[in-house]
Structure formats: C-alpha cells, structure tokens
Amino acid sequence: MRVILSILLLLLLILQVQLWSGRGGLPEIWSLREQIREQEAENRRLQARNEALEAEVRNLREGLDAIEERARTELGLVREDEIFFEVIELDRPLRELEQDDNG
C-alpha cells in the first residue's frame, strides 16, 4: 500500500511540475492569452482604420466634391474666378505687435 501511495504521490509531483513550469503549462497559457488580447486590440484598431480608408475611397470614387475638397486642402486649389484669402492666426494681438515695432 505504501508503494502505491508513493508512486501516486510521485506522479502527482511530476504533474504539478509539468503544470507550473513545463511546456504548455499555466505560465505559457497566460502569456499566450495576453498575446491574443493584444493581437485582438491591434486587429480592432486596424479594422477601424481599414473601414475609414474604405469610406474615403468610396467617397472619392462617387463624387467630385471629395476630390475637390482634397485638392483645396492639400494642394491649395483655387479656381480662376475665386479670390484666395489666407487667414493667419497670431499668438499675440496685432496691437502688441505694432507697439513692439514702434517702440
């Protein structure tokens, strides 16, 4: 009876070592689960980016308004019958700048 009990205890000890430190053990499973969570978050971020890009492509294919808007904002498109005004935002009020120049 003692021999069987000793063998069972030894098997239990081997299984515990395998469970906590061996290949496929709990630490490896926890690490893999964390990697899966990170990959799923990255996939969600990339999916959102892809959807935004698809919407932009669809918009560019369907209408000239989107193309004109991009040309205006990115390339500075101005038609021949339009007048271009550039509004510059100052860090300080104009009066302060004039006073600095005069005095």
TrEMBL record:
Its main location: membrane. It is found in: Cell inner membrane. It is a single-pass type II membrane protein. GO terms for biological process: cell division. Residues 29-70 form a coiled coil. Residues 1-3 are cytoplasmic. Keywords: Cell cycle, Cell division, Cell inner membrane, Cell membrane, Coiled coil, Membrane, Transmembrane, Transmembrane helix. Residues 22-103 are periplasmic. InterPro entries: Cell_div_FtsB, FtsL/DivIC. Essential cell division protein. May link together the upstream cell division proteins, which are predominantly cytoplasmic, with the downstream cell division proteins, which are predominantly periplasmic. Part of a complex composed of FtsB, FtsL and FtsQ. Belongs to the FtsB family. PANTHER family: CELL DIVISION PROTEIN FTSB. This is Cell division protein FtsB. It comes from Natronospira bacteriovora. The lineage of its organism: Bacteria, Pseudomonadati, Pseudomonadota, Gammaproteobacteria, Natronospirales.
